């Protein structure tokens, strides 16, 4: 499990691709890989991956074709920055909301607004997933737990403070980029339960 509090920005050092599988070498900042063991879980842009090898601050992860297809990991390039969070431990403070690291869908950055001292990001999400997105609800974007602002059709926004921009890759995000989305599990449970009772349309296929 993860908390949605991004612990820093890592860098993709290398990607080795073979049929149906990619191995990522991702370098974490100094002193953030201490105590990592083979088999540990780390969220990379919100996607839970398993450590297969370690060399200093560089961790290696394997991603299957399904993961590459359903998330933005298949679009990563060497030198690219990513958000990371190591798995939560019992007793850790839950500053965001509990996440599984299982990405539900991707969204596109539709618009970036820069009022004084903050940034507002608008995202477009596939229509079937709008049913889980509510104003003031929780959502995870590239592994960061955020509060939803406004919702308009299949678009929603989030408001980011300078600290969030500094500590995550949102500081360099651009329009047209895709991001990983994990919806709040409690929201999904409530909405799907109401749907089964006939109060809403069916859940997205494969949810």
UniProtKB/TrEMBL annotation:
Top enzyme class: transferase
Gene3D superfamilies in the record: 2.40.30.20
Domain of life: Bacteria
Mapped Lumazine-binding repeat ranges: 1-97, 98-194
One term of GO molecular function: riboflavin synthase activity
Record carries keyword ATP-binding: no
Matches recorded under InterPro entries: ATP_synth_asu-like_sf, Lumazine-bd, Lumazine-bd_dom, Riboflavin_synthase-like_b-brl
Gene Ontology terms: biological process: riboflavin biosynthetic process
Protein name: Riboflavin synthase
